[in-house]
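Summary for the steering committee. The consortium agreed at its last meeting that each partner would contribute one worked example illustrating the joint modelling workflow. Our contribution is presented below. We chose a case with several input lines so that the handling of multiple components could be demonstrated. No manual editing was applied between input and output; the record is shown as generated.
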Amino acid sequence: MSAIDTGAALPQQKTDYIPVLLPIALALLAFPLVGSFSTWTTLTLAGLAMGMMIFAMASGLTLVFGLMDVMNFGHGAFVAVGAYVAVVAFAPMGALMQSPSLAANLMALIPAMLLAMIVTGVAGYVFERLLVRPVYGQHLKQILITMGGLIVIEQLLYATFGPQLNPLPLPAALRGSIPLGAAAIEKYRLLAVVVGLIVFLALQFTLTRTKLGLLIRAGVENGEMVEALGYRIRRLFIGVFMAGSALAGLGGLMWALYREQAHASIGGEMMVTTFIVIIIGGLGSVGGCFIGSILLALLANYAGFLAPKVALISNIALMVAVLLWRPRGLYPVTSR
Amino acid sequence: MTEALLTLSGVHTHIGRYHILHGVDFDVPRGRTTMLLGRNGAGKTTTLRTIMGLWPASQGSIHFDGARIDKAATPDIATSGVAYVPETMAIFSDLTVKENLVLAARAGAPDERRLEWMFGFFPALRKFWLSRAGTLSGGQKQMLSIARAIVEERKLLLIDEPTKGLAPAIVSALIECLKEIARSGATILLVEQNFRVAQDVGDLVHVMDSGRIVHSGAMADLAADDSLQKRLLGLSLDSHQ
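What follows is the complete predicted structure of the assembly.
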Protein backbone atom coordinates (compact mmCIF):
# COMPACT_ATOMS: atom_id res chain seq x y z
CA MET A 1 0.00 0.00 0.00
CA SER A 2 1.27 3.40 -0.87
CA ALA A 3 1.07 6.03 1.80
CA ILE A 4 0.50 9.67 1.17
CA ASP A 5 2.98 11.58 3.18
CA THR A 6 3.10 15.08 1.96
CA GLY A 7 4.87 15.79 5.18
CA ALA A 8 6.81 18.85 4.20
CA ALA A 9 7.02 21.30 7.04
CA LEU A 10 3.89 23.35 7.47
CA PRO A 11 4.06 27.10 7.38
CA GLN A 12 4.50 28.14 10.97
CA GLN A 13 1.22 29.16 12.50
CA LYS A 14 1.93 32.50 14.10
CA THR A 15 -0.08 33.43 17.13
CA ASP A 16 -1.37 36.91 16.53
CA TYR A 17 -0.62 38.81 19.71
CA ILE A 18 -0.89 42.30 18.28
CA PRO A 19 -4.61 42.78 19.11
CA VAL A 20 -3.96 41.52 22.67
CA LEU A 21 -1.28 44.15 23.07
CA LEU A 22 -3.50 46.98 21.88
CA PRO A 23 -5.30 47.67 25.19
CA ILE A 24 -1.94 47.59 27.00
CA ALA A 25 -0.44 49.96 24.45
CA LEU A 26 -3.44 52.25 24.75
CA ALA A 27 -3.15 52.32 28.54
CA LEU A 28 0.58 53.04 28.37
CA LEU A 29 0.02 55.74 25.77
CA ALA A 30 -2.63 57.38 27.92
CA PHE A 31 -0.46 57.40 31.04
CA PRO A 32 1.72 60.41 30.19
CA LEU A 33 -1.29 62.24 28.77
CA VAL A 34 -3.33 61.75 31.93
CA GLY A 35 -0.35 62.72 34.06
CA SER A 36 -1.50 61.56 37.46
CA PHE A 37 -0.92 57.88 38.35
CA SER A 38 -3.94 57.75 40.63
CA THR A 39 -6.25 59.24 38.00
CA TRP A 40 -4.82 56.94 35.35
CA THR A 41 -5.35 53.90 37.60
CA THR A 42 -8.93 54.92 38.33
CA LEU A 43 -9.67 55.54 34.66
CA THR A 44 -8.03 52.28 33.60
CA LEU A 45 -9.85 50.12 36.14
CA ALA A 46 -13.14 51.87 35.39
CA GLY A 47 -12.53 51.21 31.70
CA LEU A 48 -11.77 47.55 32.34
CA ALA A 49 -15.01 47.18 34.36
CA MET A 50 -17.05 48.93 31.70
CA GLY A 51 -15.40 46.79 29.03
CA MET A 52 -16.31 43.60 30.89
CA MET A 53 -19.96 44.63 31.09
CA ILE A 54 -20.03 45.53 27.41
CA PHE A 55 -18.38 42.18 26.68
CA ALA A 56 -21.08 40.32 28.61
CA MET A 57 -23.73 42.09 26.55
CA ALA A 58 -21.94 41.70 23.20
CA SER A 59 -20.47 38.19 23.42
CA GLY A 60 -23.81 36.53 22.75
CA LEU A 61 -24.41 38.75 19.75
CA THR A 62 -21.09 37.85 18.14
CA LEU A 63 -21.76 34.12 18.59
CA VAL A 64 -25.26 34.46 17.16
CA PHE A 65 -23.97 36.33 14.14
CA GLY A 66 -20.97 34.07 13.64
CA LEU A 67 -22.86 30.80 13.92
CA MET A 68 -26.27 31.69 12.61
CA ASP A 69 -25.52 34.58 10.25
CA VAL A 70 -28.34 36.44 11.97
CA MET A 71 -28.23 40.22 12.36
CA ASN A 72 -30.12 40.42 15.62
CA PHE A 73 -30.97 44.05 16.26
CA GLY A 74 -33.32 42.82 18.97
CA HIS A 75 -30.39 41.75 21.16
CA GLY A 76 -30.79 44.93 23.19
CA ALA A 77 -34.24 43.78 24.27
CA PHE A 78 -32.63 41.04 26.37
CA VAL A 79 -30.33 43.62 27.96
CA ALA A 80 -33.43 45.60 29.01
CA VAL A 81 -35.25 42.47 30.21
CA GLY A 82 -32.20 41.54 32.29
CA ALA A 83 -32.26 44.98 33.88
CA TYR A 84 -35.94 44.66 34.79
CA VAL A 85 -35.45 41.14 36.17
CA ALA A 86 -33.02 42.81 38.57
CA VAL A 87 -35.73 45.29 39.59
CA VAL A 88 -38.22 42.49 40.23
CA ALA A 89 -35.78 40.07 41.82
CA PHE A 90 -34.24 42.56 44.23
CA ALA A 91 -37.61 43.85 45.46
CA PRO A 92 -38.25 41.01 47.94
CA MET A 93 -34.58 40.80 48.90
CA GLY A 94 -34.23 44.28 50.35
CA ALA A 95 -32.78 43.01 53.64
CA LEU A 96 -30.06 41.01 51.89
CA MET A 97 -29.26 43.90 49.58
CA GLN A 98 -29.01 46.41 52.40
CA SER A 99 -26.93 44.19 54.63
CA PRO A 100 -23.35 45.43 55.08
CA SER A 101 -22.21 41.82 54.64
CA LEU A 102 -20.81 41.02 51.19
CA ALA A 103 -21.94 37.40 51.59
CA ALA A 104 -25.52 38.52 52.17
CA ASN A 105 -25.33 40.83 49.15
CA LEU A 106 -24.05 38.00 46.99
CA MET A 107 -26.89 35.77 48.23
CA ALA A 108 -29.22 38.26 46.59
CA LEU A 109 -27.05 39.12 43.62
CA ILE A 110 -26.13 35.62 42.40
CA PRO A 111 -29.73 34.26 42.32
CA ALA A 112 -30.81 37.48 40.56
CA MET A 113 -28.08 36.98 37.95
CA LEU A 114 -29.13 33.37 37.41
CA LEU A 115 -32.79 34.40 37.19
CA ALA A 116 -31.95 37.13 34.67
CA MET A 117 -30.08 34.58 32.55
CA ILE A 118 -32.93 32.04 32.74
CA VAL A 119 -35.64 34.59 31.91
CA THR A 120 -33.70 36.10 29.01
CA GLY A 121 -32.63 32.64 27.80
CA VAL A 122 -36.29 31.58 27.62
CA ALA A 123 -37.21 34.92 26.04
CA GLY A 124 -34.45 34.26 23.49
CA TYR A 125 -35.99 30.87 22.69
CA VAL A 126 -39.40 32.47 22.02
CA PHE A 127 -37.78 35.30 20.03
CA GLU A 128 -35.89 32.83 17.84
CA ARG A 129 -38.96 30.67 17.20
CA LEU A 130 -41.34 33.53 16.47
CA LEU A 131 -39.22 36.15 14.77
CA VAL A 132 -35.84 34.85 13.66
CA ARG A 133 -36.63 31.37 12.33
CA PRO A 134 -38.86 32.61 9.46
CA VAL A 135 -36.13 34.92 8.19
CA TYR A 136 -32.96 32.80 8.24
CA GLY A 137 -30.74 33.81 5.35
CA GLN A 138 -32.61 37.08 4.69
CA HIS A 139 -30.54 39.86 6.22
CA LEU A 140 -32.79 42.79 5.40
CA LYS A 141 -35.82 41.06 6.85
CA GLN A 142 -33.76 40.04 9.89
CA ILE A 143 -32.84 43.65 10.58
CA LEU A 144 -36.42 44.84 10.16
CA ILE A 145 -38.09 42.11 12.18
CA THR A 146 -35.57 42.07 15.02
CA MET A 147 -35.73 45.88 15.26
CA GLY A 148 -39.49 45.45 15.44
CA GLY A 149 -39.05 42.84 18.16
CA LEU A 150 -36.84 45.27 20.12
CA ILE A 151 -39.50 47.98 19.91
CA VAL A 152 -42.32 45.61 20.93
CA ILE A 153 -40.39 44.31 23.94
CA GLU A 154 -39.40 47.85 24.98
CA GLN A 155 -43.03 48.95 24.80
CA LEU A 156 -44.14 45.89 26.77
CA LEU A 157 -41.64 46.84 29.48
CA TYR A 158 -42.97 50.41 29.48
CA ALA A 159 -46.54 49.11 29.72
CA THR A 160 -45.62 46.78 32.58
CA PHE A 161 -43.24 48.91 34.63
CA GLY A 162 -44.17 52.43 33.53
CA PRO A 163 -42.12 55.01 31.68
CA GLN A 164 -40.20 56.23 34.73
CA LEU A 165 -36.63 55.36 35.63
CA ASN A 166 -36.64 52.47 38.10
CA PRO A 167 -34.03 53.03 40.81
CA LEU A 168 -31.73 50.09 41.37
CA PRO A 169 -29.45 50.84 44.31
CA LEU A 170 -26.22 48.91 44.61
CA PRO A 171 -25.94 46.30 47.36
CA ALA A 172 -24.62 47.97 50.51
CA ALA A 173 -21.27 46.20 50.62
CA LEU A 174 -20.59 47.09 46.97
CA ARG A 175 -21.09 50.80 47.40
CA GLY A 176 -18.13 53.11 47.73
CA SER A 177 -14.53 52.62 46.81
CA ILE A 178 -11.43 50.79 47.89
CA PRO A 179 -8.42 53.07 48.21
CA LEU A 180 -5.46 51.84 46.17
CA GLY A 181 -2.65 54.22 46.94
CA ALA A 182 -3.85 57.59 45.84
CA ALA A 183 -6.44 56.03 43.53
CA ALA A 184 -9.94 54.96 44.46
CA ILE A 185 -11.42 51.86 42.90
CA GLU A 186 -15.18 51.45 43.03
CA LYS A 187 -16.06 48.12 44.59
CA TYR A 188 -18.81 47.36 42.12
CA ARG A 189 -16.42 47.80 39.23
CA LEU A 190 -14.16 45.16 40.70
CA LEU A 191 -17.13 42.81 40.82
CA ALA A 192 -17.90 43.66 37.19
CA VAL A 193 -14.32 42.76 36.23
CA VAL A 194 -14.61 39.43 38.05
CA VAL A 195 -17.96 38.59 36.42
CA GLY A 196 -16.70 39.60 32.97
CA LEU A 197 -13.58 37.46 33.37
CA ILE A 198 -15.66 34.48 34.51
CA VAL A 199 -17.91 34.87 31.45
CA PHE A 200 -14.89 35.17 29.15
CA LEU A 201 -13.09 32.17 30.64
CA ALA A 202 -16.25 30.06 30.64
CA LEU A 203 -16.87 30.89 26.99
CA GLN A 204 -13.26 30.22 26.03
CA PHE A 205 -13.29 26.93 27.92
CA THR A 206 -16.53 25.86 26.27
CA LEU A 207 -15.38 26.85 22.80
CA THR A 208 -11.91 25.34 22.98
CA ARG A 209 -12.17 22.41 25.39
CA THR A 210 -15.57 20.83 24.82
CA LYS A 211 -17.18 19.01 21.90
CA LEU A 212 -20.05 21.48 22.07
CA GLY A 213 -17.54 24.28 21.57
CA LEU A 214 -15.95 22.44 18.65
CA LEU A 215 -19.39 22.10 17.09
CA ILE A 216 -20.07 25.80 17.53
CA ARG A 217 -16.73 26.77 16.02
CA ALA A 218 -17.21 24.30 13.17
CA GLY A 219 -20.76 25.56 12.67
CA VAL A 220 -19.51 29.14 12.40
CA GLU A 221 -17.23 27.99 9.59
CA ASN A 222 -19.44 25.53 7.71
CA GLY A 223 -22.85 24.68 9.14
CA GLU A 224 -23.75 22.44 6.22
CA MET A 225 -20.76 20.17 6.83
CA VAL A 226 -21.62 19.95 10.54
CA GLU A 227 -25.05 18.64 9.48
CA ALA A 228 -23.42 16.23 7.04
CA LEU A 229 -21.43 14.83 9.98
CA GLY A 230 -24.70 14.00 11.71
CA TYR A 231 -25.28 16.93 14.05
CA ARG A 232 -28.44 19.00 14.13
CA ILE A 233 -27.29 22.54 13.54
CA ARG A 234 -30.77 23.94 14.21
CA ARG A 235 -30.64 22.72 17.80
CA LEU A 236 -27.19 24.22 18.10
CA PHE A 237 -28.58 27.49 16.72
CA ILE A 238 -31.33 27.60 19.31
CA GLY A 239 -28.94 26.74 22.12
CA VAL A 240 -26.49 29.44 21.08
CA PHE A 241 -29.30 31.97 20.63
CA MET A 242 -30.57 31.20 24.13
CA ALA A 243 -27.06 31.41 25.59
CA GLY A 244 -26.46 34.70 23.77
CA SER A 245 -29.72 36.09 25.10
CA ALA A 246 -28.89 34.89 28.61
CA LEU A 247 -25.51 36.63 28.48
CA ALA A 248 -27.23 39.81 27.30
CA GLY A 249 -29.58 39.50 30.27
CA LEU A 250 -26.63 39.13 32.63
CA GLY A 251 -24.93 42.12 31.03
CA GLY A 252 -28.17 44.12 31.31
CA LEU A 253 -28.43 43.38 35.02
CA MET A 254 -24.80 44.35 35.58
CA TRP A 255 -25.16 47.52 33.48
CA ALA A 256 -28.37 48.58 35.25
CA LEU A 257 -26.71 48.11 38.64
CA TYR A 258 -23.71 50.10 37.39
CA ARG A 259 -26.03 52.95 36.43
CA GLU A 260 -28.21 52.28 39.51
CA GLN A 261 -31.35 52.49 37.42
CA ALA A 262 -33.36 50.43 34.98
CA HIS A 263 -35.18 51.74 31.98
CA ALA A 264 -36.66 50.04 28.92
CA SER A 265 -34.45 52.05 26.58
CA ILE A 266 -31.25 50.72 28.20
CA GLY A 267 -30.96 47.92 25.63
CA GLY A 268 -31.57 50.07 22.58
CA GLU A 269 -28.97 52.55 23.86
CA MET A 270 -26.37 49.79 24.09
CA MET A 271 -27.03 48.32 20.65
CA VAL A 272 -24.72 50.66 18.75
CA THR A 273 -21.93 50.01 21.25
CA THR A 274 -22.36 46.24 21.11
CA PHE A 275 -22.39 46.22 17.31
CA ILE A 276 -19.24 48.35 17.20
CA VAL A 277 -17.55 45.93 19.58
CA ILE A 278 -18.37 42.79 17.60
CA ILE A 279 -17.34 44.44 14.34
CA ILE A 280 -14.04 45.58 15.85
CA GLY A 281 -13.41 42.12 17.29
CA GLY A 282 -14.24 40.26 14.08
CA LEU A 283 -17.73 38.85 13.61
CA GLY A 284 -18.05 35.57 15.46
CA SER A 285 -14.87 35.94 17.52
CA VAL A 286 -15.31 35.81 21.29
CA GLY A 287 -11.68 36.73 21.90
CA GLY A 288 -11.93 39.64 19.48
CA CYS A 289 -15.13 40.77 21.15
CA PHE A 290 -13.37 40.70 24.55
CA ILE A 291 -10.44 42.81 23.33
CA GLY A 292 -12.75 45.12 21.38
CA SER A 293 -14.88 45.73 24.48
CA ILE A 294 -11.87 46.62 26.60
CA LEU A 295 -10.36 48.82 23.89
CA LEU A 296 -13.60 50.71 23.38
CA ALA A 297 -14.22 51.25 27.09
CA LEU A 298 -10.62 52.30 27.85
CA LEU A 299 -10.60 54.74 24.94
CA ALA A 300 -13.97 56.18 25.99
CA ASN A 301 -12.71 56.71 29.54
CA TYR A 302 -9.39 58.28 28.58
CA ALA A 303 -11.01 60.46 25.92
CA GLY A 304 -13.77 61.47 28.33
CA PHE A 305 -11.12 62.69 30.77
CA LEU A 306 -8.68 64.26 28.32
CA ALA A 307 -11.02 65.70 25.69
CA PRO A 308 -14.72 65.20 26.49
CA LYS A 309 -15.84 66.29 23.03
CA VAL A 310 -13.61 63.67 21.43
CA ALA A 311 -15.27 61.04 23.62
CA LEU A 312 -18.46 61.61 21.64
CA ILE A 313 -16.83 60.11 18.57
CA SER A 314 -14.26 57.82 20.15
CA ASN A 315 -16.28 54.62 19.52
CA ILE A 316 -16.78 55.33 15.85
CA ALA A 317 -13.20 56.57 15.45
CA LEU A 318 -11.90 53.36 17.00
CA MET A 319 -14.01 51.24 14.66
CA VAL A 320 -12.85 53.20 11.63
CA ALA A 321 -9.20 52.90 12.68
CA VAL A 322 -9.44 49.14 13.33
CA LEU A 323 -11.26 48.46 10.07
CA LEU A 324 -8.76 50.50 8.08
CA TRP A 325 -6.04 48.35 9.62
CA ARG A 326 -7.91 45.03 9.58
CA PRO A 327 -11.04 45.22 7.44
CA ARG A 328 -12.48 42.01 8.89
CA GLY A 329 -11.82 42.94 12.51
CA LEU A 330 -9.10 42.04 14.99
CA TYR A 331 -9.69 38.28 14.84
CA PRO A 332 -11.75 37.41 11.76
CA VAL A 333 -13.57 34.10 12.03
CA THR A 334 -16.22 33.86 9.38
CA SER A 335 -15.87 34.70 5.72
CA ARG A 336 -19.06 36.69 5.90
CA MET B 1 -25.78 -9.69 -8.33
CA THR B 2 -24.75 -8.08 -5.04
CA GLU B 3 -27.56 -6.61 -2.96
CA ALA B 4 -28.07 -2.87 -3.48
CA LEU B 5 -27.21 -0.72 -0.47
CA LEU B 6 -28.47 2.45 -2.15
CA THR B 7 -31.19 2.78 -4.77
CA LEU B 8 -32.27 5.93 -6.57
CA SER B 9 -35.55 5.71 -8.46
CA GLY B 10 -36.75 8.50 -10.72
CA VAL B 11 -35.05 11.22 -8.67
CA HIS B 12 -35.65 14.81 -9.74
CA THR B 13 -33.96 17.76 -8.06
CA HIS B 14 -34.68 21.44 -8.47
CA ILE B 15 -32.36 24.17 -7.22
CA GLY B 16 -34.39 27.33 -7.20
CA ARG B 17 -35.99 27.50 -10.62
CA TYR B 18 -33.41 25.22 -12.22
CA HIS B 19 -34.32 21.60 -12.89
CA ILE B 20 -31.02 19.74 -12.43
CA LEU B 21 -31.82 16.03 -12.08
CA HIS B 22 -34.39 14.58 -14.49
CA GLY B 23 -35.29 11.18 -13.13
CA VAL B 24 -32.06 9.58 -11.98
CA ASP B 25 -32.17 5.78 -11.50
CA PHE B 26 -29.29 3.64 -10.30
CA ASP B 27 -28.17 1.19 -7.64
CA VAL B 28 -25.03 1.11 -5.54
CA PRO B 29 -24.24 -2.49 -4.57
CA ARG B 30 -22.97 -3.26 -1.11
CA GLY B 31 -19.20 -3.62 -0.69
CA ARG B 32 -18.32 -2.31 -4.17
CA THR B 33 -16.87 0.91 -5.52
CA THR B 34 -19.30 2.55 -7.92
CA MET B 35 -18.15 5.39 -10.12
CA LEU B 36 -20.40 8.26 -11.14
CA LEU B 37 -18.93 9.85 -14.23
CA GLY B 38 -20.01 12.54 -16.62
CA ARG B 39 -19.07 15.86 -18.13
CA ASN B 40 -19.08 19.07 -16.11
CA GLY B 41 -22.63 20.08 -15.28
CA ALA B 42 -24.03 16.58 -15.83
CA GLY B 43 -25.48 16.53 -12.30
CA LYS B 44 -22.99 14.33 -10.44
CA THR B 45 -22.44 16.65 -7.48
CA THR B 46 -26.16 17.39 -7.33
CA THR B 47 -26.81 13.64 -7.15
CA LEU B 48 -24.50 13.23 -4.17
CA ARG B 49 -25.97 16.28 -2.42
CA THR B 50 -29.48 14.97 -3.06
CA ILE B 51 -28.60 11.59 -1.56
CA MET B 52 -27.17 13.47 1.45
CA GLY B 53 -30.36 15.54 1.79
CA LEU B 54 -28.53 18.82 1.27
CA TRP B 55 -30.65 19.53 -1.82
CA PRO B 56 -33.91 17.65 -1.36
CA ALA B 57 -35.33 15.52 -4.16
CA SER B 58 -38.51 17.05 -5.58
CA GLN B 59 -39.69 13.71 -7.03
CA GLY B 60 -38.69 10.08 -6.90
CA SER B 61 -37.36 7.97 -4.06
CA ILE B 62 -34.01 7.14 -2.49
CA HIS B 63 -33.69 3.97 -0.43
CA PHE B 64 -30.64 3.33 1.73
CA ASP B 65 -30.12 0.05 3.56
CA GLY B 66 -33.82 -0.74 3.30
CA ALA B 67 -35.12 2.63 4.51
CA ARG B 68 -36.46 5.50 2.45
CA ILE B 69 -34.30 8.58 3.02
CA ASP B 70 -35.34 11.13 0.40
CA LYS B 71 -37.48 13.02 2.93
CA ALA B 72 -35.01 12.60 5.80
CA ALA B 73 -32.95 15.45 7.23
CA THR B 74 -29.21 15.50 6.51
CA PRO B 75 -28.16 14.66 10.10
CA ASP B 76 -30.49 11.63 10.08
CA ILE B 77 -29.02 10.43 6.78
CA ALA B 78 -25.53 10.86 8.21
CA THR B 79 -26.34 8.97 11.41
CA SER B 80 -27.92 6.16 9.40
CA GLY B 81 -24.43 5.45 8.04
CA VAL B 82 -23.69 7.73 5.10
CA ALA B 83 -20.46 9.74 5.09
CA TYR B 84 -19.90 12.59 2.67
CA VAL B 85 -16.67 14.05 1.31
CA PRO B 86 -17.64 17.17 -0.63
CA GLU B 87 -15.79 18.50 -3.64
CA THR B 88 -14.75 21.54 -1.59
CA MET B 89 -13.37 19.23 1.16
CA ALA B 90 -15.11 21.48 3.72
CA ILE B 91 -12.57 20.84 6.44
CA PHE B 92 -12.89 23.05 9.49
CA SER B 93 -9.80 25.17 9.01
CA ASP B 94 -10.00 26.87 12.42
CA LEU B 95 -9.88 23.47 14.14
CA THR B 96 -6.88 21.17 14.44
CA VAL B 97 -6.58 17.89 12.56
CA LYS B 98 -7.41 16.11 15.82
CA GLU B 99 -10.47 18.28 16.45
CA ASN B 100 -11.76 17.69 12.91
CA LEU B 101 -11.60 13.95 13.52
CA VAL B 102 -13.03 14.18 17.03
CA LEU B 103 -16.10 15.91 15.59
CA ALA B 104 -16.44 13.30 12.88
CA ALA B 105 -16.33 10.48 15.45
CA ARG B 106 -19.87 10.73 16.74
CA ALA B 107 -19.62 7.70 19.01
CA GLY B 108 -16.97 9.36 21.18
CA ALA B 109 -13.22 9.61 20.94
CA PRO B 110 -11.79 8.18 17.70
CA ASP B 111 -10.88 4.50 17.99
CA GLU B 112 -7.11 4.10 18.38
CA ARG B 113 -6.83 1.04 16.11
CA ARG B 114 -8.82 2.72 13.37
CA LEU B 115 -6.66 5.82 13.69
CA GLU B 116 -3.54 3.67 13.31
CA TRP B 117 -5.06 2.07 10.21
CA MET B 118 -5.75 5.53 8.75
CA PHE B 119 -2.33 6.85 9.67
CA GLY B 120 -0.92 3.91 7.69
CA PHE B 121 -1.95 5.61 4.46
CA PHE B 122 -2.35 9.18 5.71
CA PRO B 123 0.84 9.58 7.83
CA ALA B 124 0.78 13.36 7.42
CA LEU B 125 -2.31 13.46 9.63
CA ARG B 126 -0.35 11.94 12.50
CA LYS B 127 2.50 14.34 11.88
CA PHE B 128 0.23 17.39 11.93
CA TRP B 129 -2.21 16.02 14.51
CA LEU B 130 -2.29 19.22 16.54
CA SER B 131 -1.83 21.66 13.67
CA ARG B 132 -4.67 23.84 12.48
CA ALA B 133 -6.29 22.26 9.46
CA GLY B 134 -6.23 25.57 7.63
CA THR B 135 -2.44 25.39 7.45
CA LEU B 136 -2.36 22.02 5.65
CA SER B 137 -1.53 21.73 1.94
CA GLY B 138 -4.27 20.94 -0.57
CA GLY B 139 -3.38 17.25 -0.63
CA GLN B 140 -3.28 17.02 3.15
CA LYS B 141 -6.65 18.73 3.39
CA GLN B 142 -8.08 16.12 1.03
CA MET B 143 -6.59 13.39 3.22
CA LEU B 144 -8.24 14.94 6.25
CA SER B 145 -11.54 15.26 4.46
CA ILE B 146 -11.49 11.55 3.55
CA ALA B 147 -10.19 10.57 6.99
CA ARG B 148 -13.14 12.38 8.54
CA ALA B 149 -15.47 10.16 6.54
CA ILE B 150 -13.77 6.90 7.57
CA VAL B 151 -12.78 7.69 11.16
CA GLU B 152 -15.72 5.52 12.14
CA GLU B 153 -17.08 2.65 10.11
CA ARG B 154 -19.80 3.90 7.76
CA LYS B 155 -22.05 1.88 5.49
CA LEU B 156 -21.63 4.19 2.48
CA LEU B 157 -19.02 6.75 1.50
CA LEU B 158 -20.02 9.50 -0.94
CA ILE B 159 -16.83 11.05 -2.29
CA ASP B 160 -16.93 13.97 -4.71
CA GLU B 161 -13.90 14.49 -6.96
CA PRO B 162 -11.16 13.76 -4.41
CA THR B 163 -8.33 14.20 -6.94
CA LYS B 164 -9.39 17.61 -8.18
CA GLY B 165 -6.50 20.04 -8.18
CA LEU B 166 -3.99 17.56 -6.73
CA ALA B 167 -0.51 16.92 -8.09
CA PRO B 168 -0.12 13.68 -10.13
CA ALA B 169 2.09 12.05 -7.48
CA ILE B 170 -0.53 12.69 -4.82
CA VAL B 171 -3.28 11.39 -7.12
CA SER B 172 -1.40 8.08 -7.61
CA ALA B 173 -1.05 7.63 -3.88
CA LEU B 174 -4.67 8.60 -3.33
CA ILE B 175 -5.77 5.87 -5.74
CA GLU B 176 -3.98 3.32 -3.55
CA CYS B 177 -5.63 4.78 -0.47
CA LEU B 178 -9.08 4.53 -2.03
CA LYS B 179 -8.34 0.91 -2.97
CA GLU B 180 -7.28 0.21 0.62
CA ILE B 181 -10.50 1.74 1.92
CA ALA B 182 -12.47 -0.35 -0.59
CA ARG B 183 -10.60 -3.50 0.51
CA SER B 184 -11.75 -2.85 4.07
CA GLY B 185 -15.28 -3.65 2.87
CA ALA B 186 -16.54 -0.09 2.45
CA THR B 187 -19.21 0.73 -0.10
CA ILE B 188 -18.16 3.77 -2.09
CA LEU B 189 -19.97 6.01 -4.55
CA LEU B 190 -17.24 8.08 -6.13
CA VAL B 191 -17.65 11.06 -8.44
CA GLU B 192 -14.53 11.55 -10.50
CA GLN B 193 -13.44 13.53 -13.55
CA ASN B 194 -10.11 11.76 -13.83
CA PHE B 195 -10.76 8.65 -15.92
CA ARG B 196 -7.52 7.00 -14.81
CA VAL B 197 -8.68 7.15 -11.21
CA ALA B 198 -12.09 5.82 -12.19
CA GLN B 199 -10.55 2.96 -14.13
CA ASP B 200 -8.21 2.05 -11.27
CA VAL B 201 -10.64 2.06 -8.37
CA GLY B 202 -14.10 1.53 -9.87
CA ASP B 203 -15.93 -1.81 -9.99
CA LEU B 204 -19.08 -0.41 -11.57
CA VAL B 205 -19.89 2.79 -13.38
CA HIS B 206 -22.87 5.00 -14.02
CA VAL B 207 -22.46 7.78 -16.56
CA MET B 208 -24.59 10.90 -16.30
CA ASP B 209 -25.52 13.45 -18.90
CA SER B 210 -27.91 16.39 -18.54
CA GLY B 211 -29.26 15.15 -15.21
CA ARG B 212 -29.93 11.56 -16.35
CA ILE B 213 -28.10 8.23 -16.19
CA VAL B 214 -27.15 7.35 -19.76
CA HIS B 215 -25.02 4.28 -19.14
CA SER B 216 -24.57 1.72 -16.38
CA GLY B 217 -22.25 -1.25 -16.36
CA ALA B 218 -18.92 -2.66 -15.29
CA MET B 219 -16.06 -0.17 -15.12
CA ALA B 220 -13.75 -2.59 -16.91
CA ASP B 221 -16.13 -2.76 -19.86
CA LEU B 222 -16.19 1.02 -20.24
CA ALA B 223 -12.41 1.22 -19.85
CA ALA B 224 -12.00 -1.33 -22.63
CA ASP B 225 -14.37 0.37 -25.05
CA ASP B 226 -12.78 3.50 -26.47
CA SER B 227 -15.71 4.37 -28.71
CA LEU B 228 -18.14 4.10 -25.78
CA GLN B 229 -15.94 6.46 -23.77
CA LYS B 230 -15.86 8.95 -26.59
CA ARG B 231 -19.62 8.76 -27.02
CA LEU B 232 -20.46 8.99 -23.31
CA LEU B 233 -17.73 11.14 -21.93
CA GLY B 234 -16.22 12.83 -24.95
CA LEU B 235 -12.80 11.52 -24.06
CA SER B 236 -10.25 9.03 -25.09
CA LEU B 237 -8.65 6.96 -22.38
CA ASP B 238 -5.32 7.23 -24.17
CA SER B 239 -5.35 10.98 -23.83
CA HIS B 240 -5.77 10.62 -20.06
CA GLN B 241 -2.98 8.17 -19.45
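Chain B has two domains: 1-81+159-241, 90-153. Chain B touches chain A at residues 52, 54, 73-75, 78-79, 84, 86, 90, 92-95, 99, 102-104, 106, 120-124, 127-128, 131-132, 135-137, 139-140, 143, 148, 170, 172-174, 176-177, 180 (CB under 8 Å).
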